[in-house]
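Model it.
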Amino acid sequence: MDFSILNGVQSAMRSRAMDFLMVFFTRLGEFGCVWLALAVIFLVLRKARSMGFAVVLAIAVESVLCNLILKPAFHRVRPCDINAAVTLLISRPADFSFPSGHAGVSFAAAAAIYMFNKKWGILAFILAALIGFSRIYLYVHYPSDVLAGAALGALCGVGAGLAVKRFLRRRAGQ
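Modeled.
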């Protein structure tokens, strides 16, 4: 089913404009750069500081779980290694495929943001979904990799948001 979706996306959506957009969105998600930049902005802004801490915590936990534990444990080969007929628009990632780190970090940050600000959180989830979809479009992740990364990330984001809120409540009570 993963390859049916991947190949369907390739045949139905591939165009110069989509190529440009998907490379753009995937670059935003590299190393969590866009999310870390937002976290820094939130940390500087007094009213958004707790949200910034939650985003940093969510990204850190998701990155450890995804990149240090799950990817090495599953050793899933990327779709571009199995179907080499697809021309890659980006460099082939060097690590394993499952779960998607781009999707994981993006959904971790989006969920953490949502825990503090629903409006910004919805916008963050839209960006996270575009980053996740870009990995499928670019043929470097299976849809199941992206879904697993999104689920892992969302759990990390909610957990980080709850942890920061609990810390703030305890701190306010002292």
